[in-house]
Structures are given as C-alpha cells and as structure tokens.
Amino acid sequence: MSSTDNDLSSTGPRLRDQPPGRVDFTMMFLTHDAFLRDLRRLEAAVAAGRSGERAVRNGWETIKEELHIHHVGEDEAIWPPLREALAASTDLAVRAELGVLDLMEEEHGRIDPLQTRVDAAFAAGGEELELAVKEFATAMASHMEHEEDQALPLVEQHLGPEGWARYHQFMIGTNGPDRVGAYLAWLLDDVPEATLEKVLGMLPPPVRAAYRQKFEPEYRAVPRWTAPTA
Ligand SMILES: [Fe+2]
Questions:
Q1: Any idea where the Hemerythrin-like domain is (predicted)?
Q2: pLDDT digits over 68-100, tens only?
C-alpha cells in the first residue's frame, strides 16, 4: 500500500495515493488501514500471551464493533445500489461484474464465523487463539484487498460521488453523531499528523471541536492494547 505520508513514528492509518477518479475513498481506505493496524496489535498481543488482559479484550471488542458497523454499511448502502446499477445495464460485460458483489457478500459471510472462532478461542488461549486470530486477520486482509481492487472501481464507475455521498449519509443517519464520533476516534488512533489534519479538515467545525473535546478523550479513557505500566 503506497503512502503520501512518511511520518514513520506512527503506526496508524496513513493517507494513500488514490487511484484517479471522481470518488474520494479517503475514509474507506483509512478504515481498512485502521482494521489492519488493530489486527497487527491483536496478533502481537496474543503472541505475547497477553490475551487475558483487559486492554486486549477491549481492543478486540472494538474491532468487532467497528467491523459490524462497517459491514452493515456496505451490505445495506453500497452493495444493493451497486447491484441494482450493474443488473440494469444492457452491457453484458457490466452485468458480469455482479460476480464481484457475490464475492463481497460471500467474504463477509466467511469472516463472521472466523470472528466467532476468535471469540471462543479467547477462553482457551494459547495456540488455538493464535491460529484463530491468524485465520481471521488473513481473511480480513484479503477481503479488504479484493474490495479495493475489484469492488471500489465499480463504485467509482457506477455509483459515482452522488452514490458515495448517499453511503456516507446512511452511515451518519444510522449510527448517530456519538457513534460516528467513536468511529472517528478509533480511526484516528495513532495516525501521522498529515492524516489527522486531512480528516479533521474534512469535518464540519462543530464535529472537529467535538472530536477534540469529547470523542478523542472518551476513546482514550478506555484502555486498549497497551500493556499496563506498573
Ligand atoms: Fe470496506
């Protein structure tokens, strides 16, 4: 994944060089990279035998919560209108792209039981947990790669900026301001300065202020991933 941000002191999502097009996929790419960041943290914590720590359990709960919201948004507000647009085309090559949406739905369905397996494996710990986490992380990474390489170009071509704006509106309307604020704080966890500035610059001033005064402090108040410093 290429990056336009070279602050190597941060581990969080970086701005990517986007493919040319009319749709701004910044938030989607950052969300995927935030999942990858947390999956790396999960794998490291489990490998270090820290799965019993509250901070690690909290981190895992956050991954599940963000993933649920992310997949509901795609399943309800991206894939259906995209499926409709592809199916309505008289061009057979365009209709053949419906297979990409079948793949997206199939992969979402495959990730759910892998997540349940990680949940169950937390009780067992040890090798079973390491294996379950590895399988979950691998499935997530390959799904996000397929989505970026195959599905987002279809969004660009067939939904365009208007369709993408409807998806963002769905996410805000369905989840409400406080949940969106919690998402932003998770997204921006340990991002390089350029990423932070760009995302905050995309937000309306009252949301930006709420991020600084409420959402970020609330996110920080819950211990996640970091080992306690005695
Ligand atoms: Fe996604």
A1: 28-154
A2: 999 999 999 999 999 999 999 999 999 999 999
Residue pair 220/67 in contact (Cβ under 8 Å)? The answer is no
Say how many Å lie between the CA of residue 157 and the centre of ligand 1: 17
* Residue 10 main-chain phi, psi, to 5 deg: -105, 150
Provide the token pair at 194: 């350029």
Tokens of 207: 């949301």
Q: How far is the CA of 126 from the centre of ligand 1 (A)?
A: 30
Q: Is 70 exceeded by the pLDDT of residue 204?
A: yes
Distance, CA of 46 to CA of 105 (rounded, Å): 29
Ligand 1 centroid to Cα of residue 70, in Å, is: 6
Task: Answer yes or no: are the C-beta atoms of 223 and 193 closer than 8 Å.
Answer: no
pLDDT of residue 15: 87
pLDDT at 168 over 50: yes
The CA distance from 103 to 116, in Å, is: 21
Report yes or no: 188 and 195 within 8 Å, Cβ to Cβ. yes
Direct distance between the N- and C-terminal alpha carbons of the chain, in angstroms, rounded to an integer: 37
Structure tokens at 196: 């932070």
Cα(187) to centroid of ligand 1, in Å? 13
Report the CATH number of the 26-221 domain.
Answer: 1.20.120
Task: Tell me the percentage of the chain whose pLDDT exceeds 90.
Answer: 87
What pLDDT is recorded for position 228? 65
